[in-house]
Amino acid sequence: xxxxxxxRVVEVKKEGFSxxxxxxxxxxxxxxxxxxxxxxxxxxxxxxxxxxxxIVLNIPEAVDDFLRNFLRRSGLSQTLDSFxxxxxxxxxxxxxxxxxxxxxxxxFIPDALTHRQLLLSELETVRRDTSLxxxxxLAAGESLVRMQRERDFHRLQYRRVAENKxxxxxxxxxxxxxxxxxxxxxxxxxxxxxxxxxxxMLLSLEKDRVQNTTDAKLSQExxxxxxxxxxxxxxxxxxxxxxxxxxxxxxxxxxxxGNLHLAHMTSQKCRSTSSFTLSCSIRAHDxxxxxxxxxxxxxxxxxxSDDCSWRLWALPASGEKVGQMVLTGMGHSDWLSGCxxxxxxxxxxxxxxxTTVRLWDFSSGCCVLLLSGHxxxxxxxxxxxxxxxxxxxxxxxTAKLWDLNSERCRLTLRRHSASVNSVCFMxxxxxxxxxxxDKTLALWDARLGVCTTTFCGHQHPCNHxxxxxSGEVVGSCDSRGIVNLWDIRKPASAVAxxxxxxxxxxxxxxxxxxxxxxxxxxxxxxxxxxxxSCAVSSLSGHRDGVQSVTFDHKGETVISAGNDGxxxxxx
Length: 571
Known about the structure:
Helix content is 37%, strand content 29%.
């Protein structure tokens, strides 16, 4: 009993209440105190959150049962009745208030029955969750089994692929070793092939030389005997005679009307200028190519370059893309400016910046004759159709005629006032054509060294001039890109003019039929001109200026070379 209840008992005794009333008063005060403690504990639990769940081993007697038993033993029936009414009413209100204000999942448990029902519901929920988890576990197990089977399948596939890969690697290594064992034999066979190809070319050139030499000796035997007899007679009769070298050659009597090759070429049909396409490109030199010249009979071309060397190339046959180098020669001490084949096809003449002219023999592969007489760089050379004379031009404003038998200069042609840039013999004739930086062309009689005709019409320095195969038309070009066509019977003015500028034109070449003219231009283009209509078409394939151009023997292919070191074949 608390101190406050004791004070109330004392006060009741003082006031004289009966003993039974005092007892009731004390019991009511104890009940109120118990209720206050229960309410304070409930509010404390609300403040501190949901209580921790503890396992209660010994469940004590319920509070309301204790109070009922206490009041019944004490004989307080009225107090018991009022207690039960107030107890159930306050319990119901407290339960409703706790349900509304308690956090989610926290409930006030009034007695063991309600607690059992809650536990049963939670147990049912756990069982349902367990069944769901069991189904998910079964499904996961099936998925695991399926994935294991797929893993085993892919592992077998991987092993099979790895085995195939290892087998292929081993085969590749064996094939590589096998190929390496064949490489020396392939190199040896390639060297033999190149050597045999060169030997074949040299044999064919030697055969042509022997045949031409034999024919020339037979054809010149009778004229020489007659000339010797005439010389013997003239030495006795003439009182004044000029100094002659005993090995000097005589100019042959040329008959251009009876040339069967000329008649055959001029009768060929003209191909369209727009039908040429680039079919082959040959890396001939590392430095610029200054000149190319076609072999008189075979599909070969000679190239002269700034690298001080010349090279002989076999042109690719139809369908092939690569040209073969047959020979090469070096001997000049400066850049090469021009080259020209001997009519028999077994020799090559070259001009250079070292002021000399050299004659090369293909059978020996070396220089057989050195002609020196110019005092400035030589620009070009041309053989007479008989093969005994060679003309050269130079920057010293002269052109020289060399006798190859006596190995000396027979004539020096002086008329031009500037550098003589090109020289060309008329086909099957003794006439010689020169062009100069003084903007003129000159036609010379090589037997007498006399200028017979002068062509004036260019407004800029002339770079090159040439004849067509008939010898009746002359083509020339200048540093402004102007191309003039001349009739040698009417030298007063050009019969046609084609503008290939504004950059310079370096070289011109007629087709064998004489109906087309190829122009090498500094703008990296090769222009093909129809002589009759002066229609122009352009061929692009060089990366720098084009220096030289020519046609093949049939007029179906254009061959060009330039500063990029390439020889392009257009067919």
